[in-house]
Design brief:
- With 240 residues, the protein is of the alpha/beta class.
- It folds into two domains: 12-126, 3-Layer(aba) Sandwich (Rossmann fold); 139-239, Winged helix-like DNA-binding domain superfamily/Winged helix DNA-binding domain (Arc Repressor Mutant, subunit A).
- The chain has nine helices and twelve strands.
- A five-stranded parallel sheet has the order 2-1-3-4-5, sandwiched between helices. It has a four-stranded antiparallel sheet with strand order 6-7-8-9, covered by helices on one side. Strands 10-12-11 form a three-stranded antiparallel sheet.
- A hairpin with a 2-residue loop joins strand 8 and strand 9 (158-160).
- The radius of gyration is 20 Å and the shape is elongated.
- It starts with 11 loop residues before the first strand and ends with a helix.
- The chain binds calcium ion.
- Calcium ion is lined by residues 18-19, 61, 63-64.
Length: 240
């Protein structure tokens, strides 16, 4: 029987934890509880895996060898709404407030049991990414619907198949509807290339995205290039 508490049987978790004596038994215990668990032992491999593999939820240790977990959280939040539970050895309120402000969905203080973490995971997943219960994060711009939870896009009711990068590009533009977003910003926020990256990368992905939205740079509907500056996403009605 299906109840309101029932989750999909398997959540895909990414565990970012450098301490093998914590990581291995925790991964095992979470698998026994029905989750699919991938693990990373450094911040940078964790960030890469979070972006490439798109887990349902990330469990993030704050004390990592290469980068502070809070810094990683900030980088992840710039490009992803994936729910994050922070595992912290720092049982001090200021630290906890800081990680929640930095975009963590919840936290556990070490030492914690797998049962406790599992309960928090289920609660966060029930809530959905990036908000309170029942809030629908879908963005609607004219006939374009962007659902960050399912990462699905439709145009005039028809599904649009996007690659993960195209989706992230569109979603980033959708956070700034009507504003010109520079290629520099897109490289930083979507590609995570700090500076000096090739504008060409953005141009190529924009042209793919345009094609999938059934438009071109010459006759734009949603994606308007501002020559020498960047691009803005607008509703065709608003574009005038
Ligand atoms: Ca650690």
């Amino acid at each position: 029987m299906v109840t309101g508490d029932t989750l999909p049987a398997v959540a895909r978790l990414l565990l970012i934890e450098d301490d093998l004596t914590i990581r291995a038994p925790l991964a095992r215990a979470l698998r026994e509880r029905g989750h699919a668990v991938a693990a990373a032992s450094t911040a940078m491999t964790g960030l890469r895996d979070a972006l490439d593999d798109r887990p349902d939820l990330v469990v993030l240790d704050l004390g990592l060898p290469d980068l502070d977990g809070r810094e990683l959280l900030r980088m992840l939040r710039a490009v992803s709404a994936v729910p994050v539970i922070v595992a912290t050895a720092r049982d001090d309120e200021r630290e906890i407030v800081r990680v929640l402000d930095a975009g963590a969905d919840d936290y556990v203080v070490k030492p914690f049991t797998a049962a406790q973490l599992d309960a928090r995971i289920r609660a966060v997943l029930r809530r959905g990414p990036g908000g309170s219960a029942g809030e629908d994060p879908t963005v609607v711009i004219g006939g374009l619907r962007i659902d960050p939870r399912s990462r699905q896009v439709s145009l005039d009711g028809e599904p649009v198949e996007l690659t993960p990068r195209e989706f992230d590009l569109l979603r980033h533009l959708a956070t700034r509807v009507g504003e010109v977003v520079t290629k520099r910003e897109l490289l930083t926020e979507v590609w995570q290339i700090p500076y000096g990256g090739a504008d060409k990368t953005v141009d190529v992905h924009l042209s793919w995205l345009r094609r999938k939205l059934g438009e071109s740079a010459q006759s734009p509907r949603y994606l308007h290039t501002v020559r020498g500056v960047g691009v803005r996403l607008v509703s065709p009605e608003a574009a005038g």
